[in-house]
Design brief:
The complex is a heterodimer of chains A (256) and B (65). With 256 residues, chain A is mostly helical. Chain A contains eight helices and two strands, in the order αααβαααααβ. Chain A has a two-stranded parallel ribbon with strand order 1-2. The longest helix of chain A has 31 residues, at 3-33. The chains are: A mainly alpha (256), B mainly alpha (65).
Chain lengths: 256, 65
């Protein structure tokens, strides 16, 4: 595999793992409390909707002229990657709460138990919550799969990396039958933010007509350079942090 | 809030996120790169702009939690 292909696979795998862990927490909570059958129908529906979206948008993206594709994809990756990196930096430095899958699971359990009695047939609550959870978390993955895959003309590799990540999380979740609270989510989000920002820089500048010294080899400088800059920001912000970064926990149910 | 408003709000949150200045800054930096690329080596414009945008955004968030 070439350098950009490795970057594609690693970025998609990490992003997909993080989002799958968050979706798993919601699915487990509603499945355990209410109806596994309706929950699985919701998960299946969301997966089909995401597949249709990928099939519809993938060919449209890959049919764009290469420079247009690069500037559009580069710009989108930069905006998206900087969002991930910004949140990861603020979380690592103590200015934003960390995700707490155990707490989110407890909150989702309480919400599911308080949503009325479960009937003998189809349970709309289980379906809606699991569909929404998987679809919203999956959208970010689809975005990364399509943008990286289209630019590399390798949506297949991106889809395989995403599939491996989902399979790994599902197997781990089935094994422990609990939220995967020990997955280092913020570290992985930090990594995804660095990769998206780095490839966004590379493709965005090329698409806008600039030529990087060293062509593709410059990525070996852009990626570590972005990482070091982000870590330096964390170190500088930590000196100003109000409390310990690890003491603050976030309980939002859906979202990066 | 209507369904259309909800959808627009969702797309905005999904693409632009917490700090719209980053999105605007990226678009401006790409435009400047495209303008300069015809006359000089312009590859450095985007990294400098992105470094400035990221530092400004996290610093601002830290000042206004």
């Amino acid at each position: 595999m070439s350098g950009p292909q490795v970057g594609l696979a690693v970025s998609v795998f990490l992003a997909c793992t993080v989002e799958a862990v968050e979706a798993l927490t919601i699915v487990l909570a509603v499945g355990v409390t209410r109806s596994w059958r309706s929950t699985f129908i919701g998960v299946g529906g969301a997966v089909v909707a995401l597949a249709v979206l990928t099939a519809a948008l993938g060919p449209a993206l890959t049919s764009l002229p290469i420079n247009t594709l690069r500037v559009v994809v580069g710009g989108l990756l930069l905006v998206f990657g900087l969002q991930w990196l910004r949140k990861a930096i603020l979380r690592a430095s103590g200015f934003k709460k960390l995700h707490d899958e155990d707490q989110i699971y407890t909150d989702e359990l309480a919400a599911a138990e308080g949503a009325g009695a479960v009937g003998p047939g189809f349970d709309p609550y289980s379906f809606t919550v699991s569909f929404k959870g998987v679809f919203l978390e999956g959208l970010e993955v689809i975005f990364i799969v399509l943008t990286f895959g289209a630019n590399q003309h390798d949506i297949g590799l991106a889809a395989v990396a995403a599939g491996v990540a989902v399979l790994a999380v599902v197997l781990a979740g089935t094994a422990v039958h609990a939220p995967l609270a020990r997955v280092p989510e913020n570290t992985m989000k930090f990594g995804v933010g660095v990769m998206l920002t780095s490839f966004g820089l590379f493709w965005g500048a090329e698409g806008a007509g600039a030529h990087w010294p060293g062509n593709d080899a410059i990525l070996a400088g852009i990626i570590p350079g972005t990482l070091v800059f982000a870590l330096a920001l964390v170190a500088m912000l930590k000196r100003r942090a109000p409390g310990g970064a690890t003491e603050i926990r976030e309980t939002e149910a859906v979202g990066a | 809030m209507t369904r259309v408003e909800s959808f627009v709000r969702f797309i905005w949150d999904f693409v632009v996120g917490d700090d719209w200045r980053i999105a605007v800054g990226v678009v401006l930096a790409l435009a400047v790169t495209a303008v300069l690329a015809g006359s000089i080596a312009a590859w450095w414009v985007l990294p400098v702009a992105v470094a400035g945008l990221l530092a400004f955004s996290v610093w601002r968030a830290a000042d206004h939690p």
